């Protein structure tokens, strides 16, 4: 006959209780699902899906907007993005920096006998019909219509008889003046254009 000590007895009881708990967990479907969910959760923590942004290559410079008098060339690039899985990280939100840049070109003076760039733009409307007829157009300069528009890059044209007016965005490279600054207008795709490359005068 084998004699058991109390210490051996309790060790045996603990082992049996452990085996019983394991058997119950294996037999219980809900417990198995929790264990599987835990594995899936750990897997998601290992691979996070984030959006990565980066700049594409710069496109070629555009042609100069003017043959003389200071036109503008521009160059664009696009912000690219991709969803991908990484070990760890977070979205970098967006590209930083500028998507478009500009340079002056053909800065030599135009012949004094030629038309101004604003005149050329207004004259381009001579071939278009308005209310079934053609009109001859000429420019009004910012000092003439400051009460109508404070934007130096608005092109304001009027008919030669002064009876009709129209206002559109001036083309890239159009000279402009704002207060004591002179510059050129750029960015034809914006409703409200902006003046850049400004220089202080007088």
Explain this structure:
The chain has 202 residues and is an alpha+beta fold. Helices cover 23% and strands 32% of the residues. The strands form five sheets. It has a three-stranded antiparallel beta sheet. It has a three-stranded antiparallel beta sheet with strand order 10-11-12, with no helix packed on it. It has a two-stranded antiparallel ribbon with strand order 1-3. It is rod-shaped, with a radius of gyration of 37 Å. Mean pLDDT is 74; it is low at 38-44 and 188-202.
SSE diagram, text form:
Blueprint: H1 6-27, H2 29-46, E1 48-55, E2 71-76, E3 79-86, E4 100-105, H3 117-123, E5 129-130, E6 133-134, E7 137-140, E8 154-159, E9 165-169, E10 175-178, E11 181-186, E12 194-200
Antiparallel strand pairs: 1-3, 2-4, 5-6, 7-8, 8-9, 10-11, 11-12
InterPro entries: ADAMTS_ADAMTS-like (IPR050439), TSP1_rpt (IPR000884), TSP1_rpt_sf (IPR036383)
Subcellular location: Secreted
Pfam families: TSP_1
């Amino acid at each position: 006959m084998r004699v058991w000590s109390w210490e051996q007895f309790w060790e045996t009881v603990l082992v049996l209780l452990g085996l019983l708990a394991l058997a119950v967990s294996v037999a219980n479907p809900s417990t198995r699902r929790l264990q599987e969910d835990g594995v899936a959760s750990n897997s998601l923590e290992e691979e996070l899906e984030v959006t990565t942004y980066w700049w594409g290559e710069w496109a070629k410079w555009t042609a100069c907007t003017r043959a003389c008098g200071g036109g503008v060339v521009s160059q664009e690039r696009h912000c690219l993005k991709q969803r991908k899985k990484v070990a760890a990280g977070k979205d970098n939100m967006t590209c930083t920096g500028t998507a478009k840049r500009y340079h002056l070109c053909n800065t030599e003076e135009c012949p004094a006998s030629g038309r101004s760039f604003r005149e050329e733009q207004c004259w381009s409307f001579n071939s278009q019909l308005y209310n079934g007829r053609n009109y001859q157009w000429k420019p009004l300069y910012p000092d003439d219509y400051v009460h109508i528009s404070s934007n130096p890059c608005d092109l304001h044209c009027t008919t030669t008889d002064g009876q009709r007016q129209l206002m559109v965005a001036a083309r890239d490279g159009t000279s402009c003046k704002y207060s004591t600054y002179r510059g050129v207008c750029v960015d034809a795709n914006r409703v409200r254009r902006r003046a850049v490359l400004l220089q202080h005068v007088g």
